Amino acid sequence: LQRHDRNIRTTERPFPVIIIGE
């Protein structure tokens, strides 16, 4: 689920690195 959530969050925010960091 984390991987899917990451893609969804990336769509909302152009900061995939920050999302992965959190």
Report on this model:
This protein is mostly helical and 22 residues long. It is 77% helix and 0% strand. The chain contains 2 helices and no strands. The longest helix has 11 residues, at 2-12. It is flat. It starts with a helix and ends with a helix. The mean pLDDT is 59.
The class by helix and strand makeup works out as mainly alpha
> How many distinct beta strands?
0
Q: What is the residue-averaged pLDDT?
A: 59
**Low-confidence segments, ≥5 residues, pLDDT <50?**
none
Radius of gyration: 7 Å
| Order of secondary-structure elements | HH
Separate helix tally: 2
Beta-strand content: under 5%
User: So what's the overall shape?
Assistant: flat
Indicate the percent of residues in helices.
over 70%
What is the straight-line distance between the termini? Answer: 15 Å
Oligomer: single chain
Tell me about the biggest sheet?
A: none
Please describe the topology of this protein:
Layout: H1 2-12, H2 16-21
Identify the notable features of this structure and list them briefly.
22 residues; 77% helix
